[in-house]
Amino acid sequence: xxxxxxxxxxxxxxxxxxxxGPIRALIGVHGRALVTDAVREVxxxxxxxxxxxxxxxxxxTAPRAIAERVAERxxxxxxxxxxxxxxxxxxxxxxNLGRAxxxxxxxxxxxxxxxxxxxxxxxxxxxGRGERDDHIEGLIRDLTGAEAATVVNNNAxxxxxxxxxxxxxxxxxxxxxxxIEIGGAFRMPDxxxxxxxxxxxxxxxxxxxxxxxxxxxxxxxxxxxxVHASNYAIHGFTSAVGERDLAALAHGRGLxxxxxxxxxxxxxxxxFGLPHEPTVRETLAAGADLxxxxxxxxxxxxxxxxxxxRKDLVARLRRNPMKxxxxxxxxxxxxxxxxLRLYADPASLAARLPALRLLARPAGxxxxxAERLRPLLAERLAAGARVEVVACASQIGSGSLPxxxxxxAGLAIRPAGGKRGTGAALARLSAAxxxxxxPVIGRVHEGALLFDLRxxxxxxxxxxxxxxxxxx
Length: 472
Ligand SMILES: *Cc1c(COP(=O)(O)O)cnc(C)c1O
Description:
472 residues; alpha/beta; 5-stranded mixed sheet; 16% strand; globular; 3 domains; 17 strands; 4-stranded antiparallel sheet; Aspartate Aminotransferase, domain 2; 43% helix; binds pyridoxal-5'-phosphate
């Protein structure tokens, strides 16, 4: 005990540390409060170590060693919680990883409008109040043929607003095969209930016919709804009613047809070598009166929900007080408008819109990248793991085209047979990549940590990160 208390005397005081060069430099960057807290924490930690380890911990009490620990702690505290990562999961529009990466044009628009005042709700010609939707409505009209458009925070909000505005206390027939659940608590029956509309289930899970809808429509029906089965597919003995037939039926009964399209592609993806996904224009042309879709799925923009179609119906949505609770901010609108403007030139779209560029990226290019990076990883991991270039399959993600896979390439990392078993070794390896300054997120597949390189464009930053990998 006596020896230990003598060891404590070797610890410098908080005040003395705050006066040393390296700590003063930290204060200059991060401010006194943050650095003082970190100094106190490091000293408390050292006291614990001295009493547990005795002499063995003395080296750590040197002022320079303490300053290094303080610097690490301050850096960790100053680091934002929300930050960039490398998405090597193979899912391009990964909801947990922020969905669509934005194009430079959108980033510039966010910076421009975010930094200073803007005409967010101000009509520059008339010199009076304007509408937020004015910034995107003309663009949407040109791209989809819709008469009108309104924007809210996401597609879930768009569906909610639509149902609450047009179907409050009324019935909405939806096919049993379309009562979807999307990750993160979006279940059509629940949304419908919260919006105050009554779901009227139609047909069966695998087969729904036009006569099922016809029988379900009655005096309490507000509209007919079709939901794009985004994140699953039904195969085998199936039947669904297309927009055209459904529109004819609904219109014959004086009701609107609304379609929740989910992804809402604005261009024919087949032109980019991708599987076909119904476009917003096609859906409107088939007779839908309103179409809802996300801004950050195949459209490739910021998180947003769009409702486009008939002017009188959009006007009813705008009049709903709920709209005020769902309105998007200026940075979202600036980014969305910038992305929509890119669509004006389809020829340059695949080069300028990152979501589309990544989805359309040729497998050969991805494989060449994997070949270049393999030696780097193999060298860094040395005897700890085996690194192989493998063929793999990417997914579009966010429920778009769930059964379609895009041929891709990546690196499979197999930990060397450790005594703690493959599962534990893989978990440690994955954790080490997640702990990098720019965390690398892959997926575990067939006993390997797999990095699908489809979404890796910043090769230099990735290579620099690998040099910092710590395996212990
Ligand atoms: C993705 C999706 C939603 C939810 O959209 P968010 O923008 O994530 O709120 C709703 N409906 C369908 C059909 C979808 O695919």
